[in-house]
Design a protein that fits this description.
It holds the Pfam family GntR. By secondary structure, the chain is of the alpha+beta class. Helices cover 33% and strands 32% of the residues. It has 2 domains: 3-70, Winged helix-like DNA-binding domain superfamily/Winged helix DNA-binding domain (Arc Repressor Mutant, subunit A), CATH 1.10.10.10; 79-224, Chorismate lyase-like (Chorismate lyase, 3-Layer(aba) Sandwich), CATH 3.40.1410.10. A 6-stranded antiparallel beta sheet has the order 3-4-5-8-7-6.
């Protein structure tokens, strides 16, 4: 990670933790240069990241100020960008997983295309339900190439796959492309998620990438509509 990216994350965390509140002015560039021991160009790049995320605004002749966004929303944006996964988002409460299916299968043309692998390669197929404080939140359908995510076993699936990828395999999760849409729950999903007939689900389709640009996950997560919110900051 580059220095300006580290500084941007540090400033973002300070905003989320209310060290800098709404409408507070960030320290001047000169002050931040001294605090972080870097040049003004590095500070400018870090602040520009926060501007692009819509967390701060620059006012000509006045300085840089925190925008009116709730800290909880900033926390969600931060966690989404860092791709912490379900366990990371709910790290302060009890998180458990129930593995419904775990197999190594031949890839289909669609999955191979999503993961940028050949049609004769094998992938893990994982179906599991994720719980927060023993309440079902989401059912996940996940495909991972076995030559990228090696040694995956059922005990890992019952915890956090992302922690295994980063802490055991020493791989760095970098980014994801997501599409969110509404879908209807099937009978099995209604049973596992404990929802009523005709209850809609929010589907998050995702392709996730390592820092070397290699796709390591293609998944569709079906969230209970009463347990999932999508929040974003849009700037012009």
């Amino acid at each position: 990670m580059l220095k300006y990216e580290e500084i941007a994350i540090d400033l973002q965390n300070k905003i989320a933790n209310r060290e800098y509140n709404v409408n507070d002015q960030l320290p001047l560039e000169k002050e931040m240069c001294e605090e972080y021991g870097v040049s003004r160009i590095t500070i400018k790049k870090a602040v520009d990241i926060l501007v692009m995320k819509g967390l701060v605004v620059k006012r000509r002749g006045a300085g840089t100020f925190v925008k009116g966004i709730e800290s909880s929303e900033i926390k969600e944006i931060s966690e989404s960008n860092l791709l912490t996964g379900f366990t990371g988002i709910f790290r302060k409460i009890k998180v458990t997983s129930k593995v419904i299916e775990f197999n190594i299968i031949n890839t289909t043309s669609e999955i191979a295309n999503k993961l940028k692998i050949s049609n004769d390669e094998f992938v893990y197929y994982i179906c599991r339900v994720r719980y927060a404080n023993d309440e079902p939140y989401v059912i996940e359908y996940t495909y991972m190439p076995i030559n990228v995510i090696t040694g995956l076993k059922k005990d890992v699936l019952e915890k956090s796959i992302y922690n295994y990828i980063e802490e055991t395999l020493n791989l760095k999760i970098k980014s994801a492309h997501r599409t969110i849409r509404a879908v209807s729950a099937n009978e099995e999903e209604r049973k596992y998620l404990e929802i009523e007939k005709y209850s809609p689900l929010l589907e998050v389709e995702q392709i996730a990438f390592l820092d070397n640009g290699i796709p390591f996950e293609y998944s569709k997560s079906h969230h209970r509509n009463d347990k999932f919110e999508f929040k974003s900051v849009i700037i012009k």
